[in-house]
Specification:
By secondary structure, the protein is mainly β. 10% of the residues lie in helices and 43% in strands. The protein has one helix at residues 9-21; strands spanning 39-42, 45-49, 53-60, 68-73, 79-84, 87-92, 96-104, 109-117. The strands form 2 sheets. A 4-stranded antiparallel beta sheet has the order 1-3-6-5, with no helix packed on it. Strand 5 (79-84) and strand 6 form a beta hairpin. The longest helix has 13 residues, at 9-21. It starts with 8 loop residues before the first helix and ends in a 7-residue tail after the last strand.
């Protein structure tokens, strides 16, 4: 019996269902997905004013919309982040820079940079 490593969690569910519904003694053939998804995050970098929000949208190289597992800020006191559909919504809370990392259910991650600027520009 050979072992095939399957990286996509939905494929694992399908495999379990097929295995449970296949009669004993029957052959079960499963086509594993071809490689990992190619993830993109848009924009790759953004400037946001304190008190405002911006969405960093995660997309894949195929027609599937990736399912976000988590969005993390490297500096949550500067930029907090929540999941909004297939986007990481960043709320600017203090001046500074934060790396925003989105992780999809397959375990892959993609990152962008949020530069937080003061709410008002002071004239000199």
């Amino acid at each position: 019996m050979s072992e095939t490593r399957i990286r996509h969690p939905l494929t694992l569910v399908r495999v379990a269902f097929l295995a449970a519904s296949t009669a004993c003694g029957s052959d079960l053939q499963i086509a594993a997905p071809s490689g990992d998804l190619t993830l993109r995050i848009t924009p790759a970098a953004a400037s946001i004013r304190v008190g405002r929000t911006a969405d960093f949208t995660v997309s894949s190289g195929n027609a599937e919309r990736p399912t976000l597992l988590r969005c993390i800020s490297s500096a949550p006191l500067i930029a907090s982040v929540t999941i909004q559909g297939s986007s990481c919504r960043v709320t600017a809370t203090a001046v500074g820079t934060a790396t925003i990392t989105a992780t999809v259910v397959s375990g892959q991650s993609v990152s962008a940079v949020a530069t937080i600027q003061p709410d008002t520009v002071v004239a000199q």
